[in-house]
Amino acid sequence: MAKINGMRAPVTRQVVTNDGRLQEISPGEWSITLIAPAVVPGEAALTIWESIYRRAPMTSKRRNSANLEMLLMSLLATSGKLTGYKVAALLRPPIPLIRPVKHSQIYPALTALEEAGDLGGQWVEQQGRPNKKEYRLSAQGQARLKSWLLQHRESFSQDEILLIAYNIALIGRDAVKAALVQFRDQCDAEKRLLEERWKSAAAAVPKSRLGKNGAGEKLVGVRANYELALMERDARIAWCEGVIRRAERVVFA
User: Fold this and answer.
1) Secondary structure class of 210 (helix, strand, coil)
2) CA atoms lying within 13 Å on the CB side of residue 161
3) Which residue(s) pair with 25 in the sheet?
4) pLDDT of residue 21
């Protein structure tokens, strides 16, 4: 048995797709689309499986060591010199900059960046306290960060678009605006896809079945998840438009 959002689910499951085909899907193929589960032929009861998901082009939260390095270099690009302690303070919940990062991840990443030549480090003596190490972004690190920010992407993760907007002083207003417009369109396309899938899911349940076996209540639960997903995309679209407006008013030296 696998777990999705805390619920037990079979490793594979036979489902009926929106065009009526039977399909085996596994946890690795689950995303945020509802597919009505297949039922044994002749079985009257219809079960709605809220957490059957299939891979879809939805905004992801791609988080890997490269993204963490870009996050750390972004902080140094705008803040100048920082110690590991100050970096950790900026990334500390409940309101971290960009995203929360565990304290245990920060120092190894800073050390790796320094060894690679992307950061410079200097020890600072302190009276009565352990010495501290201050890091700064090197010219090599700035070039690497800028190249990563400006690289072509078919789609953006949430972390990527936040870092691009955060680094507007480094890559310029036009580059940030182009990325935000693409991300806004991406979110708008996801909204349309979610609505289409919801309509298909709701249509798969005959009105005559809504009062039986809790089918109506299950549909309400499914719709609640769709509404949250739609609201998240509305918020992202509004954020993109707000950043674009503010960027257009900024006078760059």
Assistant:
1) coil
2) 25
3) 13
4) 46
First-last CA distance in the chain: 59
User: Which residues pair with residue 83 across a beta bridge?
Assistant: 134
* Count: domains in the chain: 2
* Residue 161 falls inside a structural domain: no
Residues 70 and 139 occupy one common structural domain: yes
Does 223 reside within a domain?
yes
Q: Say whether both 122 and 70 belong to one domain.
A: yes
User: 89 and 135 share a domain?
Assistant: yes
What is the reported pTM? 0.72
Helices (H), 61-172: 65-79, 84-90, 103-116, 139-150, 158-166, 168-171
Joined tokens for residue 197: 């899938």
What residues are paired with 14 via a beta bridge? 24
CATH code (residue 70): 1.10.10.10
What single DSSP character describes residue 18?
Answer: T
In a domain, 83, yes or no: yes
The number of CA neighbours under 13 Å toward the Cβ of 90 is 17
Rounded mean pLDDT of the chain?
78
